[in-house]
Design a protein that fits this description.
CATH superfamily of the largest domain: Ribonuclease Z/Hydroxyacylglutathione hydrolase-like
CATH class of the largest domain: Alpha Beta
Strand content: 15-25%
Strand order of the largest sheet: 3-4-5-6-7
Number of domains: 2
Order of helices and strands: EHHEEEEEHEHHHH
Structural class: alpha/beta
CATH architecture of the largest domain: 4-Layer Sandwich
Number of helices: 7
Largest sheet: 5 strands, mixed
Distance between the termini: 36 Å
Number of strands: 7
C-alpha cells in the first residue's frame, strides 16, 4: 500500500473501535477481525514509480482531505483524482480544506491528461474541472454568507433557500443527509 505520510499516521492512530464506528457511520458492515493497514511506502509531496513501461507519479493534492493524492500516468494521459473530483455526485467535505481544494483543482489542469478517474462517478475529461471548482466555491459561499448574516450551523442546516441560491442541490437519501450535515459542520469549523 502506498499513501501520504499523513494517511499512515492517521491509520496508526486509529483504534479498531474507531475504525468500526467510522465504517458503521458510512453504512459499511465490517468483519470482527477488520483493521486498516497503514501504507508501507509513503511520501509527503511526490513519489514516482516506474513499473514496466508505465510511470506512476503520486502527488499530494490537499482538498477533500489534507492527505489527498492524485496518481498521474503520463503514458496513458490519465489522472486518478481521488475524491478531489467526483463526477455528478455531491462531494463530502468532512475533512476538507476548501481553499486548498480549489488550488488543487487548478493544479489538475497542469497535467497532460485526456481523462480523469474521479473518486466517485464516471470517468470524465479535464473539461469537468471548472464545474467541480464551482461546486466547492458554492459551498464556501454558502458558509461565508451564513456567517456574515449571523446564522448558526443549526440554522444553516435548515435554510434550504440559502443552498438553492448558491446552486447546491440537497439529496434526500440518508447518506446524502448525513454527508450534508458533516460537510456543513466542517466548513463552519474552518471558515467560520
Amino acid at each position: 500500500i502506498i499513501g501520504h505520510d499523513g494517511v499512515r499516521d492517521a491509520v496508526l492512530a486509529m483504534s479498531a473501535g474507531q475504525a468500526k464506528q467510522q465504517a458503521k457511520e458510512g453504512g459499511t458492515p465490517l468483519p470482527d477481525d477488520f483493521c486498516y493497514r497503514p501504507p508501507a511506502i509513503t511520501f509527503s509531496k511526490e513519489l514516482t514509480l516506474h513499473v514496466g513501461n508505465h510511470t506512476f507519479k503520486m502527488v499530494n493534492m490537499p482538498g477533500h482531505s489534507p492527505y489527498q493524492a492524485a496518481v498521474y500516468i503520463p503514458e496513458e494521459r490519465v489522472v486518478c483524482t481521488s475524491d478531489n473530483i467526483v463526477y455528478h455526485t455531491q462531494p463530502f467535505l468532512q475533512q476538507s480544506l476548501p481553499y486548498e481544494w480549489l488550488k488543487s483543482l487548478e493544479r489538475y489542469k497542469e497535467f497532460e491528461a485526456d481523462f480523469l478517474v474521479p473518486g466517485h462517478g464516471k470517468v470524465c475529461t479535464p473539461d469537468f474541472i471548472p464545474e467541480m471548482q464551482k461546486i466547492i466555491q458554492s459551498w464556501i459561499d454558502v458558509v461565508k454568507e451564513a456567517v456574515s448574516r449571523g446564522i448558526t450551523l443549526e440554522q444553516a442546516k435548515e435554510d434550504t433557500a440559502l443552498f438553492a441560491k448558491h446552486g447546491i442541490k440537497l439529496g434526500n437519501d440518508p447518506m446524502s443527509k448525513m454527508g450534508f450535515g458533516i460537510s456543513l459542520a466542517r466548513l463552519f469549523e474552518v471558515l467560520g
